[in-house]
Amino acid sequence: MERWTAVAFVFAGFLRVAGAQTTLTVRIYNPAHVSPNTLVKVRDEAAYILRSAGIRTAWVTCTNPGECPKPASVLDVVVRLAPDSVFPKQDTAHRRILGRAVTGYGKVADYVEVYYAPIRKLVSETQMASSADVIGAVIAHEVGHLFLGSGHSGSGLMRGCWSPRELALLARRKLIFDQVEKVELKRQYILHRPPRQQEAGVLARNQIGW
Ligand SMILES: [Zn+2]
What we know:
Blueprint: E1 3-5, E2 10-11, E3 23-29, H1 36-51, E4 56-62, E5 77-82, E6 95-97, E7 99-102, E8 110-115, H2 116-126, H3 131-148, E9 161-162, H4 164-171, H5 179-191, H6 201-208
Parallel strand pairs: 1-6, 2-7, 3-4, 3-5, 5-8
Antiparallel strand pairs: 1-9, 7-8
Helix pairs in contact: 1-3
């Protein structure tokens, strides 16, 4: 049975993913040219999953970095929907990498990359969930790693390799964090919430290279 790897890499480091209050700002870059209508649904799905764990999100769409109103903060999560030219080397016919997460070590914005091409393939072959829902769930999974570390669970959203079972749950809007993950995610969110925002946008762009 095929499996789809939702997350390939999480570079360890202390977690600095939290807003100044209780809202996590997610800055989304779209070089993959996901359609505006799909992008709305992506945000809706990811926000729904994170909200179910007690994390509210504010979304800033940055078609190009220069169009964002201000540089990324270390407290932001930057999401990049990678174009088809960016395809993870580890991709195989039976284990497709759909995304990855990189912590910013408290100096740069935490970073999530989502691979649109393998997601489209997955959606086309399975016909079980929409691209928007899969992208949204991958974003939530990766944000989960930023709080919870690189580990995976045996089933559900934080499973390392999604199977048709996870896609079926996604289609019913039941692919969410489990109770243990919810508690830990919220605890980490509060624990690592810095007292004020710090700006580090240029450094973030230089190091991450989006
Ligand atoms: Zn993962």
